[in-house]
Design goal:
Layout (H helix, E strand, L loop, with lengths): L2 E5 L6 E7 L2 E7 L6 E6 L2 E7 L9 H12 L8 E5 L5 H9 L4 E5 L3 H10 L7 E5 L3 H6 L6 E6 L14 H10 E13 L4 H11 L4 E6 L1 H4 L5 E8 L5 H9 L6 E4 H7 L24
Parallel strand pairs: 6-7, 6-9, 7-8, 9-10
Antiparallel strand pairs: 1-2, 2-3, 3-4, 4-5, 10-12, 11-12, 11-13
Helix pairs in contact: 1-2, 1-8
């Protein structure tokens, strides 16, 4: 394992670089926040963590997933959550900070990355967060049936979501783990012509009664590559409040749901294990 440190802000802060299973992981100090760090994997930004303020979410897509966490249950009520994909454990930290006494399971395949994050960016000792180092779908299969109020999928390998996490069979496993009234949220990435995104909406619609999609309008219009957050449940979602929060974000997002979202799929069909492929690779310009 390669390891290096480079001073960034004097003796009190240094960047950290280590080789992990997913490539070169770098923790870069945030020059504007005293104990905040950005995690990069092979140069691609993955997570941002502020140890002094875990409720601060720097990345646009993570703020949108934060809105989901805020709305999944009445304010302050502890929830049981499963995070598929860990990164720097940003969303698990956020949920622990905003909903004390919540119980969480994080499934992150990259064990060396988990070790790096836990060593350099330690979790609050009072946070009820258990981390499993295994494949996301295998880890999900070990979650007791009906246990989770929320399942969040944010899994990328080489900046692409693995094919086996995009199918109806995968969502069957999500549904098995969800408690009645539970929500599923996924961070999706795509660009023109949005074939992957349309297929993922059709796939979720085949397994859940209610859907909403939150994204930058330019991404929805197919003008650039970007992230979209898909929310799915079997009960009505709080669309007005989700819309208000998305619109008031520093980078305003649009919420699509109902007929408009069905029309957006453009006739795409659900993805199965037999037809699944990895999500598209982002263009190099995304990270420059």
């Amino acid at each position: 394992m390669a390891k290096s440190r480079k001073s960034r802000r004097g003796a009190t802060a240094a960047s950290v670089a280590e080789t992990v299973d997913g490539g070169l992981a770098e923790l870069i100090p945030d020059p504007d926040r005293a104990r905040a760090w950005t995690l990069l994997l092979d140069g691609a930004p993955q997570s941002h963590v502020d140890l002094d303020d875990p409720a601060f979410l720097s990345f646009e897509y993570q703020r949108r997933l934060g809105h989901v966490i805020d709305l999944v249950a009445p304010p302050g009520r502890p929830v049981r959550a499963v995070h598929l994909g860990g990164g720097a454990l940003t969303l698990a930290r956020y949920l622990a900070a905003t909903r004390p006494r919540s119980t969480q399971q994080v499934v992150e395949r990259d064990a060396p990355l988990v070790e790096l994050v836990r060593r350099e960016l330690p979790l609050d000792r009072n946070a009820r967060i258990r981390v499993r180092s295994t494949d996301a779908r295998e880890g999900l299969a070990k979650v007791p049936g009906g246990w989770a109020d929320l399942v969040v999928a944010d899994v990328f390998s080489g900046a692409r979501t693995p094919a086996h996490l995009t199918s109806t069979e995968f969502l069957d496993e999500v549904r098995r783990a969800l408690a009645p009234g539970g929500w599923y949220a996924a961070n999706l990435a795509d660009g023109p012509p949005l074939t992957h995104l349309r297929g993922q909406i059709a796939t979720a619609a085949a397994r859940f009664a209610e859907l909403a999609l939150v994204a930058d309008p330019t991404v929805l219009r197919g003008r650039r590559f970007g992230n979209a957050v898909l929310v799915a449940a079997d009960e009505p979602l709080p669309i007005p409040e989700l819309t208000r929060r998305a619109a008031s974000d520093p980078h305003p997002g649009r919420v699509e749901h109902g007929r408009a979202l069905r029309d957006f799929t453009g006739g795409a069909t659900p993805v199965t294990d037999a037809s699944a492929v990895d999500s598209p690779a982002p263009p190099a310009s995304v990270f420059t």
